[in-house]
Amino acid sequence: MGSKISPVIIVALLVVVVALVGLAVNILSPSNKPTDEHKVEGQKIAPIIEATVNTKEEGQEKVIISVVASTDDEQGIASITLPDGTTVNGNTKEYTVTENGDYVFKAKGVNGEEISTNVVVENIRVISADNPFIPDGFEHIGGDVNSGFVIQDTYGNQFVWIPVESGILKRNTMLNADFEESNTTSSELVNSVAKNYGFYIARFEASSFEANGKKVAASMAGKIPWTNINFADAYQASLDMSSGFNYPEGIKTAIVNSYAWDTALDWINQNTPNYATNTKYGNYSGTILPTGQTASDIVNNICDMAGNVREWTTEIDKSKTAESSSSSKKNTTSEGENAGLKRTVRGGSANLSKTANSHIGYYENLSDGYWGFRTILYK
Description:
Elements: H1 7-28, H2 36-40, E1 48-53, E2 63-70, E3 77-81, E4 87-89, E5 92-97, E6 101-109, E7 114-121, E8 139-142, E9 150-152, E10 158-163, E11 179-180, H3 184-196, E12 198-202, E13 207-211, E14 214-218, H4 231-244, E15 252-255, H5 258-271, E16 298-299, E17 302-303, E18 310-317, E19 342-346, E20 359-363, E21 371-372, E22 375-378
Parallel strand pairs: 18-21
Antiparallel strand pairs: 1-2, 2-5, 3-4, 3-6, 6-7, 8-9, 9-10, 10-12, 11-18, 12-22, 13-14, 15-22, 16-17, 18-19, 19-20
């Protein structure tokens, strides 16, 4: 006889089957299936931020980073925070950088959610004494750092790079209490060179150029130097050069100071020993010549620092003695209590055989037919 299954066991099995069927039905019920709505319910949507650079080519003076923020939240993007801490409204922004490094951008949604991204820039040209910066609107037209690295703007103004490997400018009268250099532009130059390891000096003595209805200094070949000008007017014409020729923001021009003059002479002497202390180079013929016409006074691609016209600088001469204007008196104002400070004039002129490193103070309201000036350019 075959064995019989106990009714109790049959009932137990039926109970188990019914329970399993009920569980399966419950699991497969639509009300228990996970949905996207359930996943995001009560959660805020974070924004997305994308950043791209305009170029990855090496040797750039600047790189433009374009940032675009977006979100699936219907409230949209509230703002973008830039690496310098500035917050701008909206979802797009361009940011220009001039140094290699990490740049962090943050995007914030209207719902308060934030996200950040880091952009690494590594293709900015590294500025050094041997690798000069070239401002926008200028191009390198000749020479190297050792022989005189020349740049030119679209108008024909030319400047020569003065490399300062240490980042520290020279000034021969630093320890002489009779001379003082406290002008704002000289302080700016000191700070600039500490970061950029050099500056540009005008290749030519300043000539007059009319820009936007006013006269500004120019540094162009073959021009008659701007003379019969007092220090204050020469100072202003030098400052106005950058705006007159539409130089980019951050690029400044100024009249030469004692730091610039002495550092330039020190560099020139490395290639032309005794240039600064010798009168065989300059134009002392009695007649002022157009800029750059004296072949013997073109050293390291800089023209006429020894002779042609004497040149105003910002250095103050506090000594009790000063030369009087020795040439044309027609445009020379009288010396006296109202004559202002004495400013140092450097070099010789067509009518006065002085060396390039010579310096003597004249009252700043004087002018003379054999006195001119020269500019510098820095950032």
